[in-house]
Every structure is written in C-alpha cells, then in structure tokens.
Amino acid sequence: MTTKVPITARGAAALREELQRLKTVDRPRVIQAIADARAHGDLKENAEYHAAREQQSFMEGRIAEVEGKLANCQVIDPATLNAGGKVVFGATVEIADEASGDETTYQIVGDDEANIKGGRLSYTSPIARALIGKEEGDVVNVVTPGGDKSFEYARRIARNAMR
C-alpha cells in the first residue's frame, strides 16, 4: 500500500503544468532533435544523436517521476480543515526566534513545493514538525544545523495573505 503524500492545491497545479509542458513541448522538441541528428548519418560517432537520446532519457524519467508524484499525492486545502487554532499542513504561520526576536512567516507545504526563500517550509522539516499541532503562544525547541533554537508560534495568518 502506498502512502499518500500531502500537497497543496498550488503544488499539485505546478506539477500538472510541468507534466503538460514535458509532454506537449519538451518531448516533441527532443524527438525532432533525434530525427535531425539521425539525418546526419553514422549514429556511432554522432554526438548530437547521443546527446538528444540522453536528453530524451532524462525527460522520460522526469515524466514518470511527476506522474508518480501526482498519482500518490493527496491535495489538502487548509481552508477546509477545522484546525481549532492549531498549526496544520498548509497553514501560514508567523514565528519569532526567541533569541533574536526576528519574526518569520512560513507556509507549511509538501516536499516538492518547499522553498525556504519563498517562505514555503516542508512539512518534514524540523521546524514544521515541531510547529504542527501547536497553538498560538506555544514555544517549540528545534535542533537545527546551526544549533538548538527556540521559536514562539506567534500567530496564524489568513489564508489569502501569502498568495
């Protein structure tokens, strides 16, 4: 039995767009490149042909990977969850570093969507794992590569604030 992997609607849409592009734009382009390289003659010593075939292999692998991810994902809309004020997958939260007082805003998302600079934190990250299930005002201790840190869960931000 395969475990479903959580993903936001935005993340699932991005994967669908990538799959569409790979199948309708990239695949025909590579097929044409292979055909053009074949027309140049001897395939044993044709670097263009071998490069195009390698690119095709990489792209077909990525198509299979994205299809697998889409088949095994569970799209979660945080607006439909009754979290009762607790941090859940998809929530956008503001946390404050206890030592420095610096406040940071993150949305807790799936692994494929994570982008720390974009404010999207994977649900499997140490900070997100520590925050999930916490309520406003709770303090969480997290072991990070830079050492132990304490964060206060300041507040949950409205769903549309991070779009």
Question: Mind explaining what this structure looks like?
Answer:
Helices cover 37% and strands 24% of the residues. The chain folds into two domains: 5-75, Orthogonal Bundle (Helix Hairpins); 78-162, Transcription elongation factor, GreA/GreB, C-terminal domain (Chitinase A, domain 3, Roll). It has a five-stranded mixed sheet with strand order 5-4-3-7-6. The protein has a two-stranded parallel sheet with strand order 1-2. It is of the alpha/beta class and 163 residues long. The two termini are 35 Å apart. The protein has three helices and seven strands; from the N terminus they run E-H-H-E-E-E-E-H-E-E.
Outline the fold blueprint.
Blueprint: E1 5-7, H1 9-38, H2 47-71, E2 73-75, E3 92-97, E4 103-109, E5 120-122, H3 126-131, E6 139-144, E7 147-157
Parallel strand pairs: 1-2, 4-5
Antiparallel strand pairs: 3-4, 3-7, 6-7
Helix pairs in contact: 1-2
Gyration radius from CA atoms, angstroms: 22 Å
Spatial gap, N to C terminus: 35 Å
- For the biggest β-sheet, the strand order reads 5-4-3-7-6
CATH architecture of the largest domain: Roll
In percent, how helical is the residue content? Answer: 25-40%
Question: How confident overall, as mean pLDDT?
Answer: 87
The poorly predicted ranges are none
Overall geometry: elongated
Briefly, what CATH class of the largest domain? Alpha Beta
Could you tell me the CATH topology label of the largest domain.
Answer: Chitinase A, domain 3
Portion of residues in beta strands equals 15-25%
Features of this protein?
Helix Hairpins, alpha/beta, Chitinase A, domain 3, 163 residues, 3 helices, two-stranded parallel sheet, elongated, five-stranded mixed sheet
